[in-house]
Amino acid sequence: MASRAIMEVLGWGLIRNSNGEWVRGFVLNIGSTDSLLAKLQGICEGLLLARSLQISSLVLEVDALVVVQFLTVGFGSSHPYGH
């Protein structure tokens, strides 16, 4: 199994309306983690922000295929995050 690179990470995200206009954004200090967990933490923070703004329908965009796969089909038990 390949080792994961651990780094100090800041996460950020934003919410736009249906016209593409900025509504709200966030930045958070995630700390020491790898890129997959950092992206998942950013998604979680963005979803919490959307809920606090009472947004009931949204489109999530992320730039990592592995995150999309994790959110749509999950990982098998052999993957480090699969348990």
UniProtKB/TrEMBL annotation:
What terms describe the molecular function in GO for this protein? Answer: nucleic acid binding; RNA-DNA hybrid ribonuclease activity
Query: What InterPro entries does the annotation carry?
Result: RNase_H-like, RNase_H-like_dom_plant, RNaseH_domain, RNaseH_sf
Give residue ranges for domain RNase H type-1: 13-72
Q: Which PANTHER family match?
A: OS05G0353850 PROTEIN, PUTATIVE-RELATED
- Put simply, this protein is called RNase H type-1 domain-containing protein
Write down the species: Theobroma cacao (Cacao)
